[in-house]
Amino acid sequence: MNKETKNTPRGLRNNNPLNIRRSADLWQGLRKEQSDPEFFQFESIAWGYRAAFVVLRTYRHRYGANTIESIVKRWAPDADGNDTEYYIRKVAVLTGLARNEPVDDRNPKMMMELVAAMSRVENGVPAVMREVMAGWNLYLG
Length: 141
Fold this sequence. Notes:
mainly alpha
């Protein structure tokens, strides 16, 4: 599928599957031109997944967010127009984890399943696990 088609979800067109909002952060793998005014655009989907893993690590270490519920409440708060409760329930079902079960950010399988589930909620289509794994491998450096 051509990532530039309008039928492709915005997060996938931007190679930013978790829709990380633009900020002053200078992410590795950013496209030189950032034409989306709201969300970062990455050179490849793997760089977008890598950024998501970095954000989730920051959530855990800076804010203590280590469950689906605490992560999603920061990631997609109701105040930003999201249905946070739906998002939490959907990610819990897709991962098989309870909403308040601790997520081990050193467990590759758990983290890849979490990010794939969040990508599914963000984009409405299943994540391609080899792309998620490529992002994990970039994250590990």
